[in-house]
Amino acid sequence: MVVAAGEGAAGSDYVTIDFTNTGSSSCTLYGYPGMSLANSGGPIGASATRDPSHSPTLVTVAPGAKANAVLRVVDAQNYPSSTCSPDSSSFLLIYPPNQKQAIDVPFKSTGCKNSSVKVLSVSVVTPGAGPS
Hints:
Blueprint: E1 2-3, E2 7-9, E3 12-20, E4 27-30, E5 34-39, E6 42-43, E7 49-50, E8 58-61, E9 66-74, H1 81-84, E10 86-95, E11 103-112, E12 120-122, E13 126-127
Parallel strand pairs: 7-12
Antiparallel strand pairs: 1-3, 2-3, 3-9, 4-8, 5-6, 5-10, 9-12, 9-13, 10-11
């Protein structure tokens, strides 16, 4: 799993998450991965909401091939500290679609401990590697 450098826009960063099939046969992914900011104390605030701008499709990933999703991270400083209750992350918890086991990927950001403040949203999985 690779977290590619992000691009910024109007108080948000967009980060591409690449999923690589390391197996010897094709696999499929469908829908949205689950993602949360976390640190040694556990998950920080709300997990990523689903970006409904594209409908999910079944993505077949050949051995060695990639699929990707885009994570939007809103700058926690957009919210009053008393509303957000900011906390620094050291990694992302990433759940590939339809999986119950998270993968920890190093990731430094700031989240909001207040779970009513939504700072993460994620796209559906699409074929191929994301932009580098």
